[in-house]
Amino acid sequence: MRFFRTPAWLAAGTLGLLHVPADAGDVDVVYVDSFEAGCGNLLYAEPFAQGDGSAWPSPWSVLGNVALQDVQQSRARLMPSPTNYSLARMGGAVSTGNVEVRFTLRFEDLATQGVGFYVRQNGGYLGLTTPHGQGYAVFAEASFRGLPGVGVWKEIDGVEMQIAHSAPPSPALAANTDYRVRYQVLQVNPTQTLSRAKLWPASNAEPAAWQVSMLDASAVLQNISGGIAIDSWSNIQTPGTITAHTLVDNVELVSLCAP
Fold first, then answer.
1. Are 188 and 172 in contact, with CB atoms under 8 Å apart?
2. Three-class SS of residue 201?
3. Which of 113, 126, 243, 254 is deepest in the core (most CB within 10 A)?
């Protein structure tokens, strides 16, 4: 696997039909066409406008290790229980294969937290359910690994693995501040899927360039569809000491077209 570069004229990326020809070489996507049927369709949108204290709305449900999940001030809050891998996961039965995800996130504690969003997800949670967890994900983090920014990940047989992480410098992150994420997963040929993502302050314009972009050839993740999931990560493992939530809002999923 290697990093790919995006042409400057495409980098800002209008949403629509993405084509990757067989000879695409070292570019992600060579042109965008929004006119073919079946592409650019809104698959799911959720503003989390339920009343304070409400549970996450349908189709969301607990997949694993959730200490608290509710809606507060039109944001979905999530907190894990402390374990040796402190990860809370909510899942939803929204079919995703080739898809663009957009959402807003907020950290309450930059030093300990991360937020993930899975697609092609199988309803599993790590190695603790049957089936074990599986899918592609985007993961935003601040400082707990010393890698602030955004990365693309995968989970296979319940094991989460980073595919690639954005190169520095990353956006300057702050607690209790809204950030937008844009994430695309696209089957570019029968054996490879392109994952790319960007993260920026919600009060700013979307950056032109994708901050991370990588092909993955994991066989079990190719040519499939699956649900969605949102993860709240904490690096705290001591019982009773996680008090910060991660928050997610304004989720949108739109279909992309395979080449």
1. no
2. strand
3. 113
Burial 36-58 (b: 16+ CB within 10 A, else e): eeebbeebbebebebeeeeebee
C-alpha distance across the termini of the chain, in Å: 20
3-state secondary structure of 208: coil
CA-to-CA dists, residue 119 to 37, 77, 79, 133, 167, angstroms: 22, 20, 20, 11, 23
The beta strands (E) that lie in 81-201 are given as 87-96, 99-107, 113-121, 135-141, 149-156, 159-165, 179-189, 192-201
- The one-digit pLDDT tens for each residue of the chain (259 residues) are 222 333 332 233 333 333 333 332 333 332 233 333 468 999 999 999 999 999 999 999 999 999 999 999 999 999 999 999 999 999 999 999 999 999 999 999 999 999 999 999 999 999 999 999 999 999 999 888 988 999 999 999 999 999 999 988 777 789 999 999 999 999 999 999 999 999 999 999 999 999 999 999 999 999 999 999 999 999 999 998 999 999 999 999 999 987 7
The domain made up of 39-255 is a member of CATH 2.60.120.200: yes
Looking at this protein, which amino acid is placed at residue 62?
Answer: V
75 Cβ contact list (under 8 Å, min separation 6): 48, 106, 247, 248, 249
**Exposure string for 184-219, b = 16+ CB within 10 A, e = fewer:** bbbbbeeeebbbbbbbbeeeeeebeebbbbbbbebe
Contact of 89 with 155, CB cutoff 8 Å:
no
